[in-house]
Design brief:
This protein has 3 domains: 153 residues, no CATH class; 140 residues, no CATH class; 175 residues, no CATH class. Strands 1, 2, 4, 7, 8 and 9 form a 6-stranded antiparallel β-sheet that branches. Helix content is 16%, strand content 34%. By secondary structure, it is α+β, with helices and mostly antiparallel strands.
Length: 499
């Protein structure tokens, strides 16, 4: 077992650990095994050999030299050998070039490549091709002939890497982990007076809501009831209230539209300064109908609903505005469950919310949160279990506190001089498990059996959770690199055996 703590900077070098038996290590680990990761990459240095009648071929030659103004010869070989779906989904390659008359290419996606051997072809749209494809396209060889412009810096470096997207919850052993910003403002759009929600779950109790009284909420339900028996039931129904709506941001803050359906969250849109997007229902419906989403939706009691499915149908209604009568069509979503499920029983309803969250556009001004959840019962829905602990980070990603209860969360943010605004500030407080054994187990896992040292590191300002720390510590960063360079030569580097 390794010892801890990719999150602690005792020197300027952050050490890493690519496994997940224990979370962190003081020790610098051995490089990850390409056979385990499923990707490897090599840069091959070559010489050109010319023959009779204009024939030529390439030899691999580690001793090949370079002359300014003459070509050098090289190839990049990528091997794909059974990477996991998780690693494949975030796999990229970089080919960095200096001192040669060719530009570097970075962040080449590799997720579409099947197993096999590929070579870097800069003229191809996808950059990496198998040898059969290269030859079929009329290219003689995967070797690149590139003019040397500076023998002092001539170098080709290739790397393949996979780094987990941290904005979504992901699983590590017994825990689900999520990195996300603290909103400086969060609103429940159903309760706003100056705007209306994109999704709505109207009922007679919503009489004070702006959208319900002024934008046809009552009329939607009345039109639905005219054609359906039983009547609309907000315990298991809601509708998309604003389809094809333009949304613009003229604020330096980043804005998000967040849809909550039974404890599952969908980001319907994210805007930075000066951007404008159109929010439509189709992507949301694809997410809602996904079997993984339906299995993850819970009722108000936090319980899974057996055999949950959803039906979608249009409803056309008319309502009065200051400009006259308006006709509009919305889409109503109706949930069904198996086994005689009683939608009207206390807590059996599905809660629907549309939040608008705001957080700083500058990373240095953000408060970030790293939340460790009890692993969900379904591995297809990470982050849906209760929270065990939440680490609070400042703009430098230094850990400032660790919170383990709703009371601690509210007390900390009441005292931390965080600007609290919007009508739903505490909606971002997680549902904490509140189990001391689970908290101790997590801290021991983070520190290889120790508990106190984490709190000492936080108090001393030595604990950080940057993206790089998280990737390394939680076993989601894999990177392989190879490079070649050329020594300057005063003789031609093209070999002609007939000369």
């Amino acid at each position: 077992m390794k010892r801890l703590l990719a999150f602690v900077f005792v020197v300027t070098l952050a050490f890493s650990f690519a496994g997940s038996a224990s979370a962190f290590s003081w020790e610098k680990p051995a490089p990850p095994d390409p056979e385990k990761i499923g990707y490897s990459i090599d840069v091959l240095k070559c010489t050109l050999v010319t023959g009779a009648a204009g024939s030529y071929y390439y030899n691999m030659d580690d001793n090949a030299a370079a002359v300014n103004g003459a070509d050098v010869y090289w190839a990049v070989k990528l091997t794909v050998d059974g990477p996991s779906d998780l690693i494949r989904s975030t796999a990229y390659a970089d080919v960095e070039i200096s001192g040669l008359a060719m530009s570097s290419v970075k962040a080449i996606p590799l997720n579409a490549l099947d197993d096999g051997v590929y070579y870097f072809i800069p003229s191809a749209g996808d950059y990496f091709q198998k040898i059969d494809t290269i030859i079929a396209n009329g290219v003689h060889s995967p070797v690149q002939a590139t003019r040397c412009t500076d023998t002092q810096t001539a170098r080709v470096t290739a790397q393949v890497y996979s780094e987990r997207v941290l904005g979504e919850a992901f699983n590590v052993g017994d825990y689900d982990v999520r990195l996300h910003p603290l909103y400086t403002e969060i609103k429940n759009m159903a309760k706003e007076k100056n705007s209306s929600p994109y999704i709505a779950q109207g009922s007679e109790d919503d009489g004070n809501c702006y959208y319900y009284t002024r934008e046809g909420g009552e009329e939607v339900i009345a039109a639905y009831n005219e054609k359906h028996d039983p009547d609309y039931n907000s315990n298991r129904q809601f509708w998309f209230h604003k389809d094809n709506n333009m949304w613009a941001n003229m604020s330096p803050q980043i804005l998000q539209q967040i849809f909550e359906v039974g404890g599952c969250y969908y980001i319907a849109g994210e805007l930075r300064y000066g951007e404008m997007i159109t929010i439509t229902r189709e992507p949301f419906e694809a997410w809602l109908q996904d079997p993984n989403t339906l299995r993850s939706i819970k009722n108000a009691n936090g319980e899974t609903i057996p055999g949950l499915s959803v039906n979608i149908e249009p409803v056309t209604y008319t309502y009065e505005t200051k400009n006259g009568t308006t006709k509009k069509t919305v889409h109503v979503y109706t949930f069904s469950a198996a086994g005689g499920y009683d939608w009207n029983a206390d807590g059996n309803n599905i809660v629907i919310h549309n939040y608008q969250g705001t957080y700083p556009g500058k990373e240095s001004e953000r408060t970030m949160l790293v939340t460790f959840y009890q692993a969900a019962r379904s591995p297809l829905a990470p982050g849906s279990g209760p929270a065990i602990a939440q680490f609070v980070l400042n703009g430098d990603r230094q850990v400032r506190a660790v919170l383990t209860s709703e009371a601690a969360w509210k007390e900390y943010f009441d005292k931390a001089n965080v600007e609290q605004s919007g009508n739903a500030w505490y909606a971002q407080c997680p549902n904490f498990l509140g189990d001391m054994d689970a908290i101790f187990d997590l801290m021991a896992w983070l520190d290889d059996g120790e508990i106190d040292s984490i709190f000492k590191a936080i108090e001393a300002g030595e604990m950080y959770m940057t993206d790089e720390n998280l990737w390394e510590a939680l076993g989601y960063a894999y990177r392989f690199e190879d490079s070649v360079s050329w020594q300057a030569s005063t003789v031609p580097i093209i070999v002609d055996p007939l000369a």
